[in-house]
Amino acid sequence: MALDRETAMQVAAVLSKGLPYIQRFTGKTVVIKYGGNAMENEDLQRSFARDMVLMKLVGINPIVVHGGGPQIGELLERLSIKSHFVNGMRVTDSETMDVVEMVLGGQVNKQIVSLINQQGGTAVGLTGKDGNLIRARKLEVKNHADELARPEIIDIGHVGEVQEVNVEMIDMLTRSNVIPVIAPIGVGEDGASYNINADLVAGKVAEALKAEKLILLTNVSGLKSKDGEVLTGLTAQEVNDLIEDGTIHGGMLPKIRCALNAVESGVRTSHIIDGRVAHATLLEIFTDEGVGTLISRH
């Protein structure tokens, strides 16, 4: 059915407004951490997949890093394996690590790859173990309790942090017109697997690639002031001030630190955006308004 003239003009205006952004970001790399509601709602899944395909078609190189905590928890429960957490991190013994690899590297990763491919893209799923993509080391968790003479190191098993990212492998994929979809599992020097926080993996991948943008999809509308207003544009110094005065606290703190570290390590901008909004990634990249908080170095 043909569009009426007014609707056609609106579509043309939207496309025209996107042109300067397409020109600015063609050839640039954008790392997107995909998780939360955007990953659990079918309509949002489809809109995210379409966003990735469109970005690739206009010359932007999207790199997707995904989470999967709820899916891991669900399978562990079905298998009657109890979950324990220390400082918000899942204690991961060998049995739990097997489930993590099965869910992240298998179920969740392949579902995202399939979604992107269904929308006409060419996505390839990877874990950090493929081609030594993510070299990891065991994460040390320290208990700084006042009654202890020195910090106690708590063993939380196969939980790691990123030591090195194989940039050449990602470059090879993006040059081949492929959208890499990365599960946050790293490999140690001894070949052991490590479960790594997906935000941290996305941040380190963005840093290693000197990406144009790091985009973290969340279940909130962005970083808020003490008055509840969304803060749309902040410098690294302003973010540090907000951490210092307690405006940024609790569960948002690790995500903000990840975004902050990225811009301080060479990524041009980091974005905390509302993944509950359809086409949130496109709105953040191709409009002035965006749908969240932008953090820049200066």
TrEMBL record:
Transmembrane segments annotated in the record for this chain: none
Compartmental location: Cytoplasm
Catalytic activity field: N-acetyl-L-glutamate + ATP = N-acetyl-L-glutamyl 5-phosphate + ADP
Domain spans labelled Aspartate/glutamate/uridylate kinase: 28-274
Molecular function GO labels: acetylglutamate kinase activity
One Pfam family recorded for the sequence: AA_kinase
EC number: 2.7.2.8
Binding site for substrate: G68, G69, R90, N195
InterPro entries recorded: AceGlu_kinase-like_sf (IPR036393), AcgluKinase_fam (IPR004662), ArgB (IPR037528), Asp/Glu/Uridylate_kinase (IPR001048), Glu/AcGlu_kinase (IPR001057), NAGK-C (IPR041727)
Keywords: Amino-acid biosynthesis, Arginine biosynthesis, ATP-binding, Cytoplasm, Kinase, Nucleotide-binding, Transferase
CDD domains: AAK_NAGK-C (cd04250)
Site (Transition state stabilizer): K33, K255
Pathway this chain belongs to: Amino-acid biosynthesis; L-arginine biosynthesis; N(2)-acetyl-L-ornithine from L-glutamate: step 2/4
Family statement drawn from the similarity comment of this UniProt entry: Belongs to the acetylglutamate kinase family. ArgB subfamily.
Cited PANTHER family: N-ACETYLGLUTAMATE SYNTHASE (PTHR23342), N-ACETYLGLUTAMATE SYNTHASE, MITOCHONDRIAL (PTHR23342:SF0)
Function: Catalyzes the ATP-dependent phosphorylation of N-acetyl-L-glutamate.
Record-given protein name: Acetylglutamate kinase
Organism: Marinobacter xestospongiae
Source taxonomy: Bacteria, Pseudomonadati, Pseudomonadota, Gammaproteobacteria, Pseudomonadales
